[in-house]
Specification:
This protein folds into 3 domains: 131 residues, 3-Layer(aba) Sandwich (D-Maltodextrin-Binding Protein, domain 2); 113 residues, Periplasmic binding protein-like II (D-Maltodextrin-Binding Protein, domain 2), CATH 3.40.190; 48 residues, Methane Monooxygenase Hydroxylase, Chain G, domain 1, CATH 1.20.58. Helix 6 packs across helix 12. Strand 7, helix 6 and strand 8 form a beta-alpha-beta unit. The strands form 3 sheets. A 6-stranded mixed sheet has the order 2-1-3-12-4-13, with helices on both faces. The chain contains 13 helices and 13 strands. The protein is of the alpha/beta class.
Length: 331
Amino acid sequence: MFHSIKSGIKKAATLATVLMTTFTASQAFANDTINFGIIATDAQQNLRQRWEPLLDDLGEALGKPVKAYFAPDYAGIIQAQRFGKVDFAYYGNKAAMEAVDRADAEVFARYIDADGLQGYYSLLIVNAENDSINTLQDVLDQHEKLRLGNGDPNSTSGFLVPNFEAFANNGVSANDFHRNVTASHGANVMAVANNQVDVATNHTMSLVRIEEQNPELFNKLKVVWQSELIPSDVITYRKGLDEELKQKAREFFVAYGDEPQQLENLSLLAWSGFAATDNNQLLPIRQMEAFKKLVEAENNSNLSEKDRTKRMAQYQAEIDQLQTEIDALKG
């Protein structure tokens, strides 16, 4: 009896040692690999081909392999970064704001496009054969009977900017359209081309790639509105990463594009390099988000006058504080 108990304890201890060894080896392997989060706006194979040369060079600079981690939406990347499954991530400004607030992310670089511009534009697109919609005013005038292809709620160019600049500023909500469908940039392009929606959000970088890779599809699209310049999308890392690793990453991105092969790699993404930046880049985006909430509160008929006034005052105070911070950065 005693012998069998003793034998059982010994076996359990051996099993625990094996499991611990396996876990430690697995953990060490995970720590030796950098995961880079990318939203799957296109087929993963296409994205992988565009990103892999850059990520391979990043891995060489960091001394660790860098693997692409794809998720169908920004929320998936943000959650992955929050729980340590993603170390670096590429975000639009709105998603970066969420990642900074919820996933302990830190902004450190932004891309420079092929023309040297550190920004891009949000767009509203319609089918090229649609003769009744040629301007934003046409969209606003007809919105109640139009099907809208809206973007990911965490997308800057696909959701925040067009819903604020194009719609909220003109007293219209996406929910006021006949139909409001949320989808990725790629899905919205196809929906417009196939007349499944009447108007959809998108951005200039997406259309640049489509024009280069699929001219036939590009010719089916028509831009009817363009936003103000949006600061370029950003690269982030988790704050908890090793400081030396983060420093190497900052140096790598700011210097990348100085060599012909690097420029060729960047051309796959329609970029020419990177510029240093930080979380302060997100202040105008935060202000835009606060203003959108102020407009929503003002137009919310379900709120009492007291609650409406309270919420509007809260959002206005946030807008004013953010403006103070923006002005201070301008000097």
